[in-house]
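## Example pair
The file below holds two records. Each record gives the amino-acid sequence first, followed by its structure token line.
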Amino acid sequence: MTTITKHPPAAAHKAPQRSNRGRGMVKLRDLKVALLFILPAMIGLVAFSLVPTIRGIYLSFTEYSILGEPKWVGLDNYTAIFKDELFWNAMAVTIQYVAINIVFQTVIALGLALLMHRVAKSTFVRGALLLPFLVANVIVALLWFWMLDYQIGIVNEIISWMGLPRIAFFGSDQWAIPTIAGVNVWRHMGYTALLIFAGLQAIPQHVYEVASLDGASPTRTFWSITMPLLRPVLALVLVVTVIGSFQVFDTVAVTTGGGPVNATRVIQMYIYQKAFGESDFGYASALSVILFLILALVAFVQMKFLKGNESDLD
């Protein structure tokens, strides 16, 4: 009688193991290649962003002048901030600037984006809208500073020729902040319009065709289809523009320097003056940390209430 011994198919069990090991080696190799490409950016991020941020937070708890060593003072800087009238004035001026800049920039950029989407199909026209954004902000500020000069500015020359009184655009506390906001709106509206235009192109055309067949007017289509489907893009645009508006500095530094009196001393200008004008780097660092927390809170609230991570297309 012959006994037949059955052996388990060992090869069948080993093959998947070799396959999984091979996939693991490929993934490890891909990870090493990816890290090699990311490494230069990571070095820059750590050296020029993360390390200065950590040191700035540390300095905010110290009394520090560039001529001496940091002296730990705990929460004294933060306590002084809440009693600082100039800080609250700077925040009020900044909020006024942000409100004017955001409203006009968003509305004008939305109008330009709609024109690019519906009317202006030329690549040249679309590219021309970006030209102001490609010019350095300091140069733009100087250009408008000369054009709006009270004595020799071409704008005031035209106003005088029309028989109207000249306007001290940068020298009046009523006109200074709206003028600075207008300069920055002119520079950034093309870039903002481009972002919104990209969102318009992502809306499926058949949605508009269905609305047209249902007899919806252009106004009804805009408010019922375009605006709801643009919500994620508009949320991103608002977050970017609000953060950028709170950080306005160069236009103010070139045109008014924070004057007249304190009418245009925005929070970034106040931080600069405390750090490099008065050599109070500890207090300036505390102001910077407060500004960082405000911007983080504003961005969170915007994304939460505007539902920027959701889309009606889903």
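Second record, same layout:
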Amino acid sequence: MRREFLKYLFEMPLLWLGIAVLAGLIFIGDTITDLEIAFAVLYVSVILLAVYSGRTGAIAMVGIACAVLTIVSYFLTRHGASQAGLINSALSLVAIGATTYLAIRIEMLDARARQAQSELARMSRLMIVGELGTSIAHEVSQPITAIAANGNAALRWLSATPPDNDEARRAIERIVTDAGRAGDVIGRVRGLVARSSPSRDTVDLVEAINDVLELVRSEIRRNQILLRTELAGDLPLVAGDRVQLQQVILNLVMNAIEALVEVDAETRELLVSAAADERKVTVSVRDTGSGMPAEMLDKTFEAFYTTKPKGMGMGLAISRSIIEAHGGTVYAAPNFPHGAVFGFTLPLGGKAKG
């Protein structure tokens, strides 16, 4: 219990300072006022403030502490009728207990909703990775083929008379490099489809974007798309879940690729950019596809709305929920002279929501 309390304390120090100060003021007020005044009912506000911690254990501890303070205050108060004070204290304890119970129940329901959203997001990632199956297989097969070729070359250099150790060493070094390339691809896929709870880390969006583009590189080449990137070198870190943000980027890029397939190969251009100002980071994916009317762009982030024949209409809706959970916003706009721009903004300063 002590370890859990210290964990909560260090995660949100300002929140717990506010809770402690407010509880202390209520305790003082409850102690110096007459017993006829049910001052302890104000502890309900302390419990509601504890809900912001997002932890059922923390809410329970605050509720218990408020109940203990109410009892202690009753025995310390010297003014007023003891019978009326006992009734008021009992009512306050009932209010504290009921509020604590309801707050814990609400937080548990919110946690289940977040878990369901996480599972839905993971299923969406699996569907996207399934669509990228051919591209990923190609990315992995290239280094594996190179490993086999370099392995045979190393054997030939070693079996020569006399053995050429220098050439064999260089071939083995190329094997190690290619094995690392294959491992990187597998690691990126594993990271995207892993079952994990949403986290709050500092995320390098430039690195996250580059990892996503590496996964779709073969898909871009296969469809003869000109890829350009404009990623600010001094882009600040943002607070959030790296895997979820990569899912949003991957979804936007895949949608852009599908839009570009419908136009002539000579005009297929894809621009991925990231920039920042004093308040936010903006990531955009711009394509030169056929685009869509403005009234359709307004609906693209709605659940079950899709322009694809076999689409489910959940990819962009999930992307919007992910970005909004990070305190940001999504947007869509026409591209000039043709195509569409999809992107999102995230606030600076670690304002991610749980």
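Notes on the second record: The beta strands are 201-203, 226-231, 238-240, 269-276, 280-287, 329-334, 340-347. Confidence is low (pLDDT under 50) at residues 309-313, 350-354.
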